[in-house]
Each structure stands twice: as C-alpha cells, then as structure tokens.
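Pipeline run #58 for the internal structure catalog. This entry was flagged by the ingest filter as a single-chain record with no existing model, so it goes straight to prediction. Upstream metadata was stripped on purpose; only the residue string is passed forward. Reviewer on rotation: M.T. Logging verbosity set to normal.
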Amino acid sequence: MITLQDKELLAKKGISEQQIVEQLACFEKGFPYLKLFAAASLKQGILAPDVDEQKKYLDAWEVYTQTDKIVVKFVPASGAASRMFKNMFEFLGADYDIPQTDFEKKFFEKIEKFAFYDDLNTACRQTTGKDIPMLLIEGNYKAVVAALLEAAGLNYGALPKGLLKFHKYEDGSRTPLEEHLVEGALYAANKNGKVNVHFTVSPEHRALFKALVNEKAASYAKKYGVDYNISFSEQKPSTDTVAADMENKPFRDKGKLLFRPGGHGALIENLNDLDADVIFIKNIDNVVPDRLKEDTVTYKKLIAGVLVTLQKQVFEYLELLDGGKYTHAQLEEIIRFLQQTLCCRKPDIKDLEDADLVIYLRKKLNRPMRVCGMVKNVGEPGGGPFLAYNADGTVSLQILESSQIDMNDPAKKEMFEKGTHFNPVDLVCAVRDYKGNKFDLVKYVDKATGFISYKSKNGRELKALELPGLWNGAMSDWNTVFVEVPLSTFNPVKTVNDLLREQHQ
C-alpha cells in the first residue's frame, strides 16, 4: 500500500510508516467518548478566590517575577482570517449587489468604525480610483469588499488574524500581535524587564510577522520600559496527519498521499521545545484595547500566582516523599491536597499499602501543571471544564469539547448543556519538575482523545484526523486547576463584525 513515492514523502516530513498505520486504525475504530464524572462548577473544581486570597496570589506572582525563572508568553497565531470574513466572501459571490443580510448591512453602516478603514480607503483608491464614500454612493459595495479581501487590495482574506488591524488609537491602529506584545510587557516581564513572546505561525506568513515585529517592537519596548525577546515557530511537518477516504483507506490526490495539519494539538511539540519555567497561553484574537486591559492583566497575574503557589507546595511534598522521612499523617495531608486542591481522585485509594501509596502520590504530583481561567457560560461555543475519568480509573479536571462527549446519552448531554463555565483558552503552565528538569510534554498526551472531522478536496469527501487538542487531550495527564475569571477577559474576534462590539472600539 505504501509506494516508493510515499516513502520519500514520509521521510521528508519525518513521519514513520508505523504512524500511518496507527492513524488509519483511528479512522477504522474512531475515538471513544470520555467518561464524565461531573461538570466542574464553583462547588466542585473551580476556584473563586476572595479579595484576601487574590492579594496573596498577586503577591506570589510579583515575587516569582523577581527570580531568575524564565517566563514565556505563547500565542498560537497561525490561523488564517478567512473564517473571520466568511460572510463577506459570501457577499462577493452572491447574485445580488446591494447588502441584504443583517451582517452585510451592519458591516457597511459602521464601516468607518473599523481600525482598518483608512487603509481600506487607500486600497479602494488604488484599485478603483475612488474612495469608499464614493463607491457606496454609486452602489458599488462589492468593490469595497474586494479591496478588503483580495490580493490587489489589502488581502485580508488570505492574511493571518494576528496581522490585521483590530483597534484604533490616537497614534494609529494596532494588530493583535502588537496587543500581545503590550500584554507581555504588563504581566510577563522579569526583574530585568525581559519579556519573552513566542508566536506559532504558518510558514507562508512568517516573513510578514517578522517584518511587523521589526517595525513595531522597539516603540513598545521604549513605551513600557522592557526588552523584548520575540521568537517564532511553525507546526512541525511530522505532526501532519494522513487523510482517509470514506472507506478509511489513505486519501490520494493525483496519486500522492494527502496530509493535513493535525490541528492545535500539534503545538504541544512547539511548547515542548521552549526553554521556560512558566508559559502563558492565549489565543491570538482574544485581545482588547488598552482602556480595557486592566482585568486581563490582573487575572493573568492572579492565575500565574495560583500556579506558582501550588507548584511550591507540590515541590515540598515531592522532596518529602523522596527523602523517605514522612509520617502517615503527612501522607494523609498529601492525599487531601491531591484530592481537594488538585481535584485528582482515586476511588480505591484506601486499599493501597503505604509503599504503593507513595508511588501513586509521587506519580500524580510529579507532572506538568496548568491553571486555566474559566468564564461564566454565556452560550459561546467551545469546550468546558469537567471532571472526567482517566484510563487509570482516577478522576481529574479536563477541558472537553462537545465532540468528546456522547450527546446521545441524555445525562451526559445535560451535563454539557448545564455547564456553568466554559474555556476561554486562558492558561498558565509550569513545565519543569522539582529538580529543575524539563518535563517531556509529549509523554503526557492522551492519544485516545483525537477526533475525526469531515472535509473535502476538489469536491471529494475525506476524513481528517485532528490530534488531541492542545488544552484538551494533549494536556490530559497534567495537574489541572480551574479558576473563575471575569467575562471581561474574553473578547475573541470570530467575525469581522465582532470588531464593532463596544469592547473593540
């Protein structure tokens, strides 16, 4: 089944034949649904620190940034903005010329409010010889959209979100990339003012990202009195997955095996390559202008403070266990911490002899840790916080997507729908062990949590294999803590009209 040409392609990508066999087997057998224990809530699994606790955690983060530890802000930014403009692409292809849908009407009514308006106006003049007001009077709406999306104009339809102008300021407009640089300066600077920001980008856009950084970073460094270290990486070709046809055979396009990017779960490799102690993760499109940044910054520092406080406790327990001089009362204290604070429960823990108990406690404590912000559910699509069963029979906190939950089971469906919180992708991770060695993050992925999606290529249907998501199955075997954060910290831009929301004006 594997041809000589296939072998060459696999070697080039760094994918083994064994991996192909495993991936095709996933299409055959599919992925099991996760067994749920309960939706996480403020009663169980989500912390909501009071004012005194908040102060304690904020101070803990302040102290941590004054050490020699390396903090990195990690931003997945390879996504193209094509989905953001789906409605406007549809308008371009529609058989009418005047805006019909509410979305189209709103876009044109408020067009002046977009941060990219001046650039678009210039692009219209270049492509049509007329400015936007003139084109709108003439009823030539499509020329404006074409100047926005197509290569002859601003080419926004093919650019990544990170490079589009989102917010207007007195001194010009900012892209999400710039907003993340500002954020980094506000909560991730070390004692010497060093701010490490890492973007994962697609190969075709890397040069554009670099150019924007070269143009802008120095002025932000000066403004905030920091020194930026900005780096980039791309999804590794070895994390691509083979596509299958409807019979679960390898999908071939003109005789060649078709590979697709493995989704954001592939980024666990990029995360693993970073030299860091603590890593913040946040999506590229979840940014706000300066006037609204205060909550974001406070809660970022807060969840980081929770992380370093808990990590310190874990390290002390591990030292105790490794030293071998512990009492039964101390073991009980560690069990309580594991069960109550880290929400990791083992139903039959009482049956373990002390020697096995120590092995179990050590294994559960000595692993990467993450603290994830959770916001109140307001009906946004996306994953949510759950207590779920793991392969070893323990229950722990997980972020699950709806595709991982058996919606045909009424009890599970109700759990999902009644979930009080959802995941805004607001994480801070601790990736070294108590001896200062880096964890190999790839070892903590639950491979049984990938999912299959249906796509097409040149009109032929295909099945695509998505790797376990970065904050889902890729971090399944981490210690996880959820903290409630306000909704004001979550302002993603999914469609171009989201930029018209008050939060982005």
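catalog note: The mean pLDDT is 92.
catalog note: DSSP finds 15 helices and 20 strands in the chain.
status: ready for reviewer M.T.
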